[in-house]
Amino acid sequence: MNRRKFIHNTTFTAFGLMALSSFDEQLLSNQNIKITLTPWSLIRSGYGGNDPLNIDLLNIPKVARSLGFDYIDHEMFHFPPNLNQEYINNMNNAMESAGVKSAVMLTGGKGDVGDKDPKKRSKALANYKYWIDVASALNCKALRNVCGEYITIPHKEKLNYAIQGVKELGKYASSKGLDLLIENHNGYSSDPGWMISLMKGVNLKNVGILGDFTNWTLERNPDTFYPDPYKGFEILAPYIRAISAKSESFDKNGEEINTDFKKMFSILKSAPNFIYAGVEFFGNDISRNQGSVNTRRLIEKVLRES
């Protein structure tokens, strides 16, 4: 799982400590959309990384609440490699103390559930089943996974292996009461038609899509992109249950300059099972906490005006 890395100055100012007003809370409740804070907004490296601005993972719930979030996502790479029940208990206690709840566990990059090699596919499935157990212990509602970033075999062949892997992982997630969400995360999955074929082939009630605003790289060297991300979201919408609302820079009116949030959320009206809007700020022109708040406010604005 490749991530863009940005290093910049940040402080937790009074600006970042603004909570949702009761009006906004009622608004979001009525819309049935829950805005979550994705940890990559504040933690830009994996566990033990060298980003000096990282926040300790167990402090994320408190910081998220101070920034006006009631829900948080989790990222597998942020957890210590020797994860144990004590650490999970500490995270649950931190969330309860802060008054926030879990939404989606984000996984990927440690094996491909659609791998052509059955041994590699089996190993990947065992790995992600472990993270389903972790997600369940953290009271998450869903687990996000991906199906390969690089095009290595024909799309139809890859689809067959992906259907096998996603179906097995989806059934295991169902046994734990979780949804399994496949993200458009470059490669095969950034082809909306391929993703719809995957959903239809898997055909499980608890399997859907986590739609990412910006992950539309079809192939590398040279980079080839799906031409219209808005059209991509239209195609994926029937299966979208959560999104990664990526943000980087804002204009003076608080609009994200790379993605038309109003247009995206208008499209999401045709997503009958959409519920979690994940804030994923990855900019470097303003502080991380400010960027997270700006993104939350922008989502609230488009929901209010929709």
Question: Layout of SSEs?
Answer:
Layout: H1 22-31, E1 34-37, H2 60-66, E2 71-75, H3 85-98, E3 101-106, H4 118-137, E4 142-145, H5 155-175, E5 179-183, H6 192-202, E6 207-212, E7 217-219, E8 224-225, H7 229-236, E9 240-247, H8 261-267, E10 276-281, H9 288-305
Parallel strand pairs: 1-2, 1-10, 2-3, 3-4, 4-5, 5-6, 6-9, 9-10
Antiparallel strand pairs: 7-8
Helix pairs in contact: 2-3, 4-5, 5-6, 6-7
Class, according to the CATH hierarchy?
Answer: Alpha Beta
Low-confidence region ranges:
1-30
* CATH homology superfamily name: Divalent-metal-dependent TIM barrel enzymes
> What's the alpha carbon Rg, rounded to whole Å?
18 Å
Describe this protein with a few key phrases.
disordered N terminus; two-stranded antiparallel sheet; globular; 306 residues; 9 helices; TIM Barrel
Describe this structure as you would to a colleague:
The chain has one domain: Divalent-metal-dependent TIM barrel enzymes (TIM Barrel, Alpha-Beta Barrel). The longest helix is centred in the middle third of the chain and has 21 residues. The chain has an eight-stranded parallel β-barrel with strand order 1-2-3-4-5-6-9-10, surrounded by six helices. A two-stranded antiparallel sheet has the order 7-8. It is 38% helix and 16% strand. α3 links the parallel β2 and β3. It is an alpha/beta fold. The radius of gyration is 18 Å and the shape is globular. The two termini are 34 Å apart.
